[in-house]
Amino acid sequence: MDYLPIFLDVRNKPCLVVGGGEIALRKITNLRRAGATVRVVAPELAPALAELRAAGEILHAARAFRDADLDEALLVVAATDDRHVNQRIAELARQANVPVNVVDQPEACSFLMPSVIDRSPVVVAVSTGTASPVLARLMRTRLEALIPAAYGRLAGLCADYRARVKERFADQRERRRFWDRVLQGGVAERVFSGHLDEARAAMERELAAGPSASPLGEVYLVGAGPGDADLLTFRALRLMQQADVVVYDRLVAASILDKVRRDARRIYVGKERDNHVMRQGEINRLLVDLARAGHRVLRLKGGDPFIFGRGGEEIDTLAEEGIPFQVIPGITAASGCASYTGIPLTHRDYAQSVTFVTGHLKDNSINLNWAQLAQPHQTIVFYMGLVGLPVIVEQLIAHGVSPQMPVALIQQGTTHNQRVYSGTLSDIVERVRRDPPEPPTLVIVGEVVRLRERFNWFQVPLPAEQGALAPIFPDN
Ligand SMILES: C[S@@+](CC[C@H](N)C(=O)[O-])C[C@H]1O[C@@H](n2cnc3c(N)ncnc32)[C@H](O)[C@@H]1O
Fold it and tell me: Fewer CB near the terminus (10 Å): N or C of the chain?
C-alpha cells in the first residue's frame, strides 16, 4: 500500500482550509460531516461558504495565508488557485508534522481524502492513491448501490448489544457465529425492512437461546424480472446471495438462477400450462415448512410476484402461519417487453391508459370485459395470451376494434431469444400459425405498437456474443 487508510477523530478539533472556492467547499463539507471545527483562510468566499460563515458553521479569516495560520491545526488542506502558495503551505506543514492535502498536487500531499460512502456509523472510504480520483468516485457509486442505506441502523443495533453478546458468548468462535447469524439472517432483514422492534425481539430470542439457537427462518418473495439478469433489483440480488434454499418456477431464466448462492438448495416447482410439477397449495405449504425448519427461503418468481404471479396467495399462507416474509418487486413482463421492443405502453398522442389482463383460455373462452377493452386510446397487454390469441382477436373485432389495429407478440422478451411478431388484428393469427413462437410470449394491442419502428433500440446479441447457446429458460 502506498498510503495507510485510517479513520481520524476530528470532532471539535481545529482543521485549517486555505482557499475559499468550490474545491475548498467540497473538502470543508467532508470535514464538517465529521464534526471538525473548520477555519478558512481566504480573501474571498464562494457564496455557499459565505452562507456557512453567516450561519456560524465555519470560522473565516478574510486575508491571504500567513505561516502562523498552521499553529494548532490538526490538519491542513491547501485549496488556493495559486500553486506556489499551495506548495509553501505543504512545505511548512511537513516541517511542522501537520498532515497536509494539496488540491490537484498529489505529490505534495501527505494524506489523501478518499471518496466516502456514509452509512454512519458504517463508513466506507475508497482511494486509488494518486492514480485516478474519477475511478475512485466510480467505485464509490457502484458500492453505494450494494450497501443498503439501513446498514447504519444495523450497526447501531450491534453497538447496543455488543457488551451483552460478549458476556453471553465467552468463546470467540461462538461469538463470531452468533454475529454471522444476526448479520446475514432474520435480524438484519427485520432492520432493513424497518421493523426495528421485531429485530430487537429476535435479537433477545437469539441471545436467550445461546449457542444452540436454531436459526430464524423467513421467506423472501422475489421478482426475478422478465429474463435479462441485468434487470434484477439490488435487493433481489442481495437476498439471492444469502438464501439457503431457492424455490423457483419455470419463468426464472437460467442466467438469473446462476446468481443464487452456489451452495443453496434448489427446488423446482414448475408451473407450465397444464403441467404443474407442484400444485399451488403444495408450494404454499413447502414455503412454510422450509422456513419453520430455520431456512432463509428465496421464492423466486418470473417478473413481478404481484402481477399474475399468485404472490398474494403465497404470502397469505405465510402471514397466517406467522412466518416473517418480505416481497421484492421485479420488472413485470409488460414493462420489460415493451421497453426492449421500443413500444411505450402509454403515449400522449396514442394511449392514455394501459391495462394488463390475463388471456388465459378456459373452456375455449376468455372471461374479460371486452366492451371496455375495445375502447379507443388505450393499450392492452395480454399475459398468457398465446394459446387464446384467436379468441382475443375475434372478441376485440366483435366489440368494435378495427381489424387494422396494430399488435405485437413478443417471445421471451429481454432475453437473447427475444423475437417480435408484429402485425394487425387481421393477420397476426395466421402469422403465428405459420411460425409459432416459443413461450413465454406477451401480446400488446394498441396504436403505440406503431412507434416500435422508430424506437426499437435492443439488438438481440449474436450467439457468439451470448457466451452459450443454451436455452435461457430452464425447460424450453
Ligand atoms: C403466470 S404469468 C407471470 C407474470 C409475471 N409475474 C410478470 O410479472 O411478468 C406468465 C406470463 O407472463 C408473460 N411473460 C413472462 N415473462 C415473459 C417474457 N420474458 N417475455 C414474454 N412474456 C413473458 C407471458 O405472457 C407468460 O405467459
Answer: N
Q: Name all contacts of 124-133 with Cβ < 8 Å and 24+ positions apart.
A: 125/5, 125/7, 127/3, 127/5, 129/2, 129/3, 130/2, 130/106
- Please report the pLDDT score of residue 473 as a whole number: 53
The SS3 assignment for 160 reads helix
For ligand 1, atom 15: residue with the closest CA? 333
Determine the residue type at 407: V
Task: Name residues whose C-beta falls within 8 Å of residue 250's C-beta, 6 or more positions apart in sequence.
Answer: 270, 271, 272, 302, 473, 474, 475
Q: Which atom of ligand 1 is nearest to the CA of 415?
A: 19
Distance (angstroms) between ligand 1 centre and the Cα of 386 equals 11
**Catalytic status, residue 82:** no
Is 468 in a helix, a strand, or coil? coil
236 Cβ partners below 8 Å, 6+ apart? 222, 223, 224, 328, 330
Q: Does the pLDDT at position 465 exceed 60?
A: no
**Residue 361 in contact with ligand 1 by CB distance below 6 A:** no
- Region 21-44: what's the mean pLDDT? 95
166 catalytic per annotation = no
- Enumerate residues 6+ apart whose C-beta is below 8 A from 161: 203, 207
Grid cell of 248 as nine digits: 423457483
Task: Identify the active-site residue in 244, 249, 301, 304.
Answer: 249
**Which triple of cell numbers denotes residue 179?**
454475529
The structure's pTM equals 0.77
Cα–Cα distances (Å) from 84 to 42, 88, 388, in that order, read 15, 6, 78
**In the chain, how long is the greatest CA-to-CA distance?**
91
Query: Ligand 1 pocket: which of 232, 233, 251 to mutate (most atoms <8 Å of CB)?
Result: 251
Residue linked to cell 452509512: 119
Q: Is 413 in the pocket of ligand 1 (CB under 6 A)?
A: yes
- Asked whether the beta carbons of 250 and 359 are under 8 A apart, the reply is no
If DSSP codes are grouped into helix, strand and coil, which group holds residue 342? Answer: coil
- Kindly state the percentage of the chain with pLDDT values over 70: 95
Amino acid letter, 99:
P
Among 442, 445, 472, the mutation site with the greatest number of ligand 1 atoms within 8 A of its Cβ is 442
**Ligand 1 site-directed mutation target among 308, 310, 314, 420, most atoms within 8 Å of CB:** 308
